[in-house]
Amino acid sequence: MNTLTHAEPRTRRPHRIRRTAVAALALAALTALTSCTPETVAPADERARANEAGGDGKPGARVKLAKGEVDCAVAKCIALTFDGGPGKDTPALLDLLKREEVPATFFLLGGKHIEKYPETVRRIAKEGHEVANHTWNHPRLTEIEPDEIREELTRTQKEIARLTGSEPTLMRPPQGRTDDTVSEISKELGLSQVLWSTTAKDYATNDSELITERTLDQAGRDGVILLHDIYKGTVPAVPGIIDALKKDGYTFVTVPQLMAPAKPVPGAIYRP
């Protein structure tokens, strides 16, 4: 199985060179991911199928959404997601998201995170963000036994439910590594898998300006942005990301909102 390429920290270079390098890194990551995962479904395709089915299959038909819901068949939507938290900087991130009225999806890690910041977990849920599962110990799920996969996911499910009153319906496999066994267990536990289309590789740099630039270079309609709220340079980069994308006409939504009126299917793997 191939490994997703991790970019090393780099010195600052001219804008054109950095843009080319980022594009190459993104392509390499997506190629590696494609080669080691079962079939994936784009959230936009899932949404389109649901609209067609609910609209008697007529071209351009759309299911009427509830009042206040964003129709991403019309709006230029993008989903902001955070992995590996909560962390010490997550409350500041939540303050920002609240001011900007931006919903996000948080794929929470159990060990040393959920157990260390339970009040932050409660706040994430209370403020309307999507709370999702990122395992307990962050193992490569494709390299452990089925019972261990089940334990990693179940333990996190139960602790999130204890804190928020609801079990997640989404999970993100660490490093995007999944296979048929992971999918089967996810289906058993009622979890859909969510990958991404945009990665700033913020685990490899504390340069907030570079994180912002990488994110904006890769952002696209119906995309899913992957960031980590546990690294030093990430949360300071988020204001610039939100401001630039709003100016470019994007509407921020959670992952489930991105595919509405469709509902995430347990066991399915979603990737824009």
UniProtKB/TrEMBL annotation:
Domain of life: Bacteria
Annotated Pfam families: Polysacc_deac_1
Keyword Signal attributed: yes
PROSITE patterns noted in UniProt: NODB
Residues in the signal sequence: 1-34
NodB homology domain span: 76-253
Keyword set, alphabetical order: Hydrolase, Metal-binding, Signal
Listed InterPro entries: Glyco_hydro/deAcase_b/a-brl (IPR011330), NODB_dom (IPR002509), Polysacc_deacetylase_ArnD (IPR050248)
Protein name (record): Polysaccharide deacetylase family protein
Species name: Streptomyces albidoflavus
